Amino acid sequence: MKLGFRQFFLHTFSLLTLIPSMSSFALTEKSVTLKVAQEKNDQADSNKLTENDKIDKSLKKVLDAKVLKVCSDAGFLPFEMKTQTGEWTGFDIDMMKHFSKSLKVELKMIQISFDGIIPALISGKCDLIAAGMTVTPEREKIVAFSDSTFINGLSIALKNTEDNKSAYKSLEDLDKDDNNIAVKTGYTSDIYLSKTLKKARILRFDQDSDLVLAVTQGRAKAFVTDTTYVNLMDKDKQNKFIILPTKIVSDSFSIAAKKSSKELIGSFNEFLKTWKESGGYARAEKFYFQDQLWRSQVLGVK
Alpha-carbon distance 55 to 288, whole Å? Predict the structure, then answer.
């Protein structure tokens, strides 16, 4: 189709007026593209920072500070104890001393009641927990556990009387409305009995020694705690207790750390393996569980 001069002029003018608009659109589109690319780069940088922040520095932190802080609760014989002069001792303490020595750092023990020991770890008061802690599904959701440091179980102890001997043979026999059973607050026995008992009342205490006292004073019919401790108390009390023959459960003790402290737990696992291979574990086990040479320092008796 042929265009007259006027029509041609108007058509050409309209095209020329569109050029700036098209150019502006192109620039805008380019700007948007650059902005999106920049945002992607910024996000990538942000992700890198986030990943760096997630790098496990738990072992480096201990090595740099030259101090390993360990939360524990003295009074759980023979794992965590204090001598009559106030010095820390025990199977777990000995293990931590050797671990800190392998790292060439100082060991700092921190006294925390057992029911508050995991919150203390999470809040940063310590690097590890060494407190005869049993590995449970509930705790595994909150903390990271090392390889097993000791295999133990729960036992039931009652006052040694003829009536108790004839009436009680199992935990089921103790589950009666008029019976109180003493446990340590937050401990494995507390968790287990809270799920198991239907009628008996649970009395909770802060220290294992309080469990013994509750039974000897008649406030509780029985106490339930770790087999190792029950056997030690039975020896100290010269067979004043009946220990029911069947362990309630077998459990595994481990060292605990924050979920993020994988390097520190890994380092401890390597140490534990070496300590066992070198005979150190067996020597500590003999000292604390068989020879019991700590008794005079802790209990003032042989």
Answer: 39
